[in-house]
Amino acid sequence: MEVVIVPAPDDAAVLVADVIGRALATVEATVIGLATGSSPLGAYRELVARCRRGEISFAAADAVLLDEYLGLPAEHPEAYRTFIRRELTDLVDLDPTRLHGPEVTCGDVPALCARYEALLARLGGVDVQLLGIGADGHIGFNEPGSSLGSRTRLKTLTAETRRDNARFFASLDEVPHHVITQGLATIGDARHVLLVATGAAKAGPIARAVEGPLTAMCPASVLQLHPHATVVVDEAAAAHLQHAAYYRSVYAGKPDWQAL
Ligand code: F6R
């Protein structure tokens, strides 16, 4: 795992936008995996600004979602497809028909999960998958105990995750209990995984994911097995990393982030 410690959340946003921008410029028909939640918002703002300045283009790209709530009407502002359209894809030149997510309107959950896996395969896999991390170490909505070999499926959110996500809803009662999420093995198929975490609340899960044992109890620790996983953290989220000085020494003085 590459761990890049940057001074502040804005620096993390720039770095993430650099990696995605480079993929858009260099990979034909780029497939970008998008996360929702707060962690990627700075990067999305940066990508929108760069697209408006004509520096990057999503015109030849596909975008795929990590997960989607079950039980929210499609037009609900917190449905993940609505969220990502509002925060990114409607604001850039992505063809709206090339935004993909689990189609949660169909009642046959195993069939819709299999269709989503088939779609990801048809697209040729994900070039860069952006991730956040939950307080309990989840990525996507693979909660603790998730199989490290899991694929897209239905998951029940933990009480902790529902409480964390209640800030986006009028009340805790409105937070769905269930989601469809890419599995840990599905996420691991991405050619480059880019996890971004900022703020002190992420220091514990980041330390467990990066330096703790590989365990289903911290699902993000599965990224230790990934051939190209980059963890971008600000100083606050890096606070519990035992090897922070080493990670800093690896990236200190690099003229750019080409190594990522
Ligand atoms: C969102 C997702 C989740 C979030 C995680 C962190 O699509 O899959 O894993 O990335 O819950 O959320 P924030 O960034 O809001 O702290």
Low-pLDDT stretches: none
What compounds sit in this structure? Answer: fructose -6-phosphate
Largest beta sheet: strand ordering = 1-10-9-6-2-3-5
Order of helices and strands: EHEHEEHEHEEHEHEHEH
Number of helices: 8
pLDDT averaged residue by residue? 95
Strand content range: 15-25%
Please tell me what the overall shape is. globular
Class by SSE composition: alpha/beta
Q: Describe the biggest sheet?
A: 7 strands, parallel
> What is the straight-line distance between the termini?
10 Å
Total strands: the figure is 10
Percent range for helical residues? 25-40%
**Rg for CA atoms:** 17 Å
Can I get a quick summary?
This protein is α/β, with parallel strands linked by helices and 260 residues long. It has helices spanning 9-26, 41-52, 80-87, 109-122, 159-165, 184-188, 203-211, 244-251, and strands at 2-6, 31-34, 62-65, 67-69, 99-100, 128-131, 153-156, 178-181, 192-197, 229-234. The strands form two sheets. It has a seven-stranded parallel sheet with strand order 1-10-9-6-2-3-5, with helices on both faces.
